[in-house]
């Protein structure tokens, strides 16, 4: 059993380092309303007093950047076995004559759940459509979509950035990429939205049964689209995936189905939260917002900082495949490790002035899209969508202001995003 790290961490309070203090008892509760509203003070305390934390529900939690990055790259850990967890819950539904079989079958071929060699093969097939060069060619279409959406509200003097822009943008871009007909895009979006909470480990049985029904509808819809593309191929991702081959093996229908569903269910939510969280950060830091407005060419570095500052994905899980030691703590084979990406991105050992929003921050190697073999497939696309949406908002809507300081966050401990972000501006 080899150790991952032996990092000496200083006590941290709001991003300022202090001399080490005596360890204090600290109850960490990820379900606490105050934590849900602003998790970062709790992350600082946890990283200071108990950086390799044993949760009350049995898993481990890591909050230091070095530890999180090391586990993401360590082959002794595999991705969280979501299909198995879902299948285990079937035993509680037998007496209701219900099951989660459709969810289990779908998630079983999600890239998030796969390990090599299946993961390597499938990612190679799908990854070609999301390479930076391919995504860059989507910029004109993405700009047109953003311009159209902002034009719809530009004369009103007010908008909800989430519902009027952040949500429609990724739905339309992914629909264009896949070749989803316009008349069913709203329905597909709703299904994707309903499924976006699938990664939350504390979903109720009732919620999971509902998701099982949704994924059946989702699957039936894409089966029809796949059948149409098999008869009449078009210049879209579904058509490309149908004929995709890797070492002579054709992509199976189940894999093709789940790739399409995964792109909507997870890719859409990440971009929504990037735009929403990013704009909120700018609105609360007017000097930085004005800097970006005056220097729009710095949008690439700005988006990286916004991703770091308030991560769209706050936590992901890994399972130890063998006994592993992390800084003196023994993680047993089979135990779950929660990697707090949001905490790692505010680690002062990695990011000086970690609680300050600095759009021109250099050396910004954040972990918002994870790392290792499960690095987010749609990261390049999310970046382009975020860059275009945020820059266009700042350039086209003068004097942007928060309409209220009472904001509600979506109830999801894995994803961090607002339900609404109402703003006003000069017409």
TrEMBL record:
Record keywords, A-Z = Heme, Iron, Metal-binding, Monooxygenase, Oxidoreductase
The cross-references to CDD domains, in alphabetical order and at most eight, read: CYP164-like
In terms of domain of life, where is this protein from? Answer: Bacteria
Ubl conjugation as UniProt keyword: no
Q: Which Gene3D superfamilies match?
A: Cytochrome P450
Molecular functions (GO terms): heme binding; iron ion binding; monooxygenase activity; oxidoreductase activity, acting on paired donors, with incorporation or reduction of molecular oxygen
Q: Name one Pfam family in it.
A: p450
Q: Which SUPFAM superfamilies match?
A: Cytochrome P450 (SSF48264)
Family, according to the entry, reads as follows: Belongs to the cytochrome P450 family.
For this entry, the protein name equals: Cytochrome P450
